[in-house]
Amino acid sequence: AVYSASTGAAQAQVFRGSASARTALVSLHDRYLLAPHRTKPAITVWEWGRETPAHTCYVAERLTCLCADSTGAYVVGGSPSGSLYLWLAETGEFLCSWRAHYRPVTRVAFLQGELVLVTAAEDALVHAWSLADVLCARSGVSGDAEPLATWSEHSLPVTGLCCSRAGGAGSLVASSSLDHTCRVWRLGRAKALCAVSCPSPLLCCCLDGQEQRVYAGGRCGSVFEVSLTGARPPPPR
């Protein structure tokens, strides 16, 4: 189903021919919907308002996650091999790929208004990458790209990732994991700002609009609400 962000009402919208990977839908320019195929090395593209796919783009390997930056200029996909793939959205031109993780990539997200990509994987690591550094490395201008930051306090696969709306050095990144913890990081700091343990393995997380709370979805079916302002977190819903 498609929901209105302003009213919360469900809108009649059907996209046929979908076999997309879980949590990998991308809306591009409010005109296109992109989804990697669950079992094939392909990305399906729909136009909003049309039921049948407009395009099918074949890629080097099956993708597990997908995202676009806030301007809609770049699309990034993560794969089971731990590699990331980068394309220009307007033309579909493939720019580069690089090995970012040792295990399958589970989530990719851009910092708002920044060409900084945050990635998470089953290797329990969260990395932040500068796209400028990645492109320079791939063009031979510099050596291999290194992450801007690496956060390694999770002990099991990272399952959820969410970036704050504010860009720059103060950007917040929230992550959830099968190790039962939800952690909040700040770009420029090696250690987590806070870590909350929940009674269930966690499958996803998100920050609220004011960046005062984190919501984490548990495998048990509960949603856990965590305060970032020092107040005692409410019980699971």
Automatic annotation (TrEMBL):
Entry GO CC: nuclear pre-replicative complex; rixosome complex
Biological classification of the source: Eukaryota, Viridiplantae, Chlorophyta, Chloropicophyceae, Chloropicales
GO terms, biological process: DNA-templated DNA replication; rRNA processing
Signal peptide stretch: none
UniProt keyword Nucleus present: no
Swiss-Prot/TrEMBL WD repeat ranges: 98-131
Name recorded for this polypeptide: Uncharacterized protein
Domain of life: Eukaryota
InterPro entries in UniProt: WD40/YVTN_repeat-like_dom_sf (IPR015943), WD40_repeat_dom_sf (IPR036322), WD40_rpt (IPR001680), WDR18/Ipi3/RID3 (IPR045227)
Swiss-Prot/TrEMBL keywords: Repeat, WD repeat
Pfam families assigned: WD40
